[in-house]
Amino acid sequence: MSDDPSEDDFEAQMSDVSERAQKLGVSGSDPSSSSGAESLPENTTGDTEEIAEVDSDDPSAAQQAVEQGSRTTGGPDTHEYPNPDRELGALADVYANNNVFLSPEVVDAVEGLWDDIEYEWKKSHDTELNKNWDFYMACFRVILDNPNLIRDELGMDTEE
Amino acid sequence: MTDTYPEVLAISFQKGGTGKTFTSLNIAGGLAARGFNVLAIDLDPQGTLTANLGKRDLYKDLDALSLDEILLDPKSWDNVNDLIHTDHEEFDLIPSNQSYNGNKTPLDSADAGENRLGRLLERLEDDYHYVVCDCPPDFSPYAKNAVTAGEKIVVPMEPETEMPHSTDLLFDQYEVLGMMHDLEIQYLAFLMTVNSTKMTNENKRMVEWFNETFDEKGVITDHRAAFARAKKSQQSIYAHPESLRNDEVERYDELLQLILKQTSPPTLGLDVEAAKAMTVEDIRAAAADQEVEA
After folding, report:
1. Is the CB of A118 inside 8 Å of chain B's CB atoms?
2. Mean pLDDT: which of A86-100, A102-116, B94-108 is highest?
3. What domain count does chain B have?
4. Could you tell me if A51 lies within 8 Å of chain B, comparing CB atoms?
5. Which of B119, B146, B168, B291 has minimal CB crowding within 10 Å?
């Protein structure tokens, strides 16, 4: 029994449905035996820490910390990922908002690239990437480090 | 039932947004890739499968002959053959139409309104090994017709905390349907689609519950961007080259293996056992051969 009645209710419901599935011949095993996370996809880590958007309990305190300069945010030449800036507080408090309008095709392509990158990162690291803190920052840092890519794209002469 | 009557699969769950349409598309594609003749039926008034297969205009054409009209009027049942579209590369399709009225359909009050599709399928001139029904997210006669027609259900899920309650309700509803029509309903498989890069503790808990509850009848598949691109290109993951190369196809194919193991489609001149025995590697090899020929 937990201290939370709704949790007990949920546990009971899960167990009832498992038993029902067994009676219906749907399940091939005894529901009391746990096979659990063994069947999770291979790239799922076993960590139990909940993934959540980075939110500070006290955004104003986080903002204050940034403003007070107790730690500066990473610049264009910072290449550390996952981005340590996330420890400074909530995204909206630490970073500046910059709206960008893109064609739907480009938005889809960026989403697809993010999905691929996130998956590949997850396969080879114990950490997780965040789309705003890491992926978008990496996209813009790449451009800033290689401005001739933009000039090429725009059909301009590139600087020697 | 005739000896050419197809296996009819209902891809059904009354909870919305759990991947019924994509599952239908991939089951139809996975069976077709093995050489089975497949008819997909879009029974969802929202017509997502129809739209995903590039037939939005058909869905919006209120003047077009549609399955709901035919189901309502047994005198017109021979016209069912006119509903079939054969231009998709993988399987044939009976599209949905805006004229379906969702939960409130005249089928509600029609005699045996939830037990008509099976009889209607006997009028098909073309023979199919499998009919894959993409059901609406409800217990309307459209969903029930798919179940009464084949008595075989595949349930797509997501790792959300509503699943135990929704599954309980699903079992309730189809238990009553089975009792009313003397059916032996079989749950062939349960598919849970997860995004392993974004698993919360609750998601993980639901995956654990899913494994414990459905065990060997449960398949867990991981979200892949390539699969989303397959859907966008109006193909199943079995016909979409990038998806077919993806390692997750093998895991997804466990769903097809479960279906194949528990069904006995008519022969129709095909070596059914050989078709059933095809692996993802065989399908990849066949696709590569086709590419060379092209």
Report:
1. yes
2. A102-116
3. 1
4. yes
5. B291
Q: Is the pTM of this model over 0.80?
A: no
Using one digit for the tens of pLDDT, what is the confidence trace for B222-269? 988 899 999 999 999 999 999 999 999 999 999 999 999 999 999 999
> 3-class DSSP state for residue B222?
strand
User: Is B240 within a domain?
Assistant: yes
Cβ-defined contact of B228 to A48 (cutoff 8 Å): no
Asked if residue B157 is part of any domain, the answer here is yes
| Among chain A residues, CA nearest to B206 | A14
Are the beta carbons of B248 and A41 separated by less than 8 Å? yes
Residue B174, min C-alpha distance to chain A (Å): 11
Q: Do B200 and A21 touch (CB under 8 A)?
A: no
Domain with B158 in it = 7-293
Residue B2 lies in a domain: no
Q: Is residue B15 part of a domain?
A: yes
Q: What's the sign of the alpha-carbon dihedral A41, A43, A45, A49? A: negative
CA atoms within 13 A on the CB side of A1: 2
Contact between B212 and A50 using a beta-carbon 8 Å cutoff:
no
**Rounded distance between C-alpha atoms, residue B176 and residue B174, angstroms:** 5
| B73, B120 contact by CB (below 8 A) | no
Tell me the CATH number at B120.
3.40.50.300
- In the structure, what pLDDT confidence band is assigned to residue A53 with cuts at 50, 70 and 90? very low
Which among A5, A29, A41 has a CA at the least distance from the CA of A122? Answer: A41
Q: Which residue in A24, A40, A128 is closest to B220 by CB distance?
A: A40
Other beta carbons within 10 angstroms of residue A144's beta carbon come to 12
| A9 to chain B, closest Cα gap in Å | 11
Q: What is the ipTM of this complex?
A: 0.79
Q: In this structure, which amino acid lies at residue B19?
A: G
Give CA angle at A10 (A9, A16), nearest 5°.
90
* Cβ–Cβ under 8 Å, residues B178 and B51: no
State whether A112 and B171 contact (CB < 8 Å): no
Predicted confidence (pLDDT) per residue in A96-149, tens digit: 888 888 999 999 999 999 999 999 998 999 888 999 999 999 999 999 999 999
Flag if B222 and A10 touch (Cβ within 8 Å): no
Q: In B85-162, which ranges are continuous DSSP H helix?
A: 117-121, 141-150
Tell me whether A115 touches chain B (CB under 8 Å).
yes
With an 8 Å Cβ cutoff, are B164 and A118 in contact? Answer: no
**Cβ-contact B242, B216 below 8 angstroms:** no
How close does chain B come to A91, measured CA to CA in Å? 18
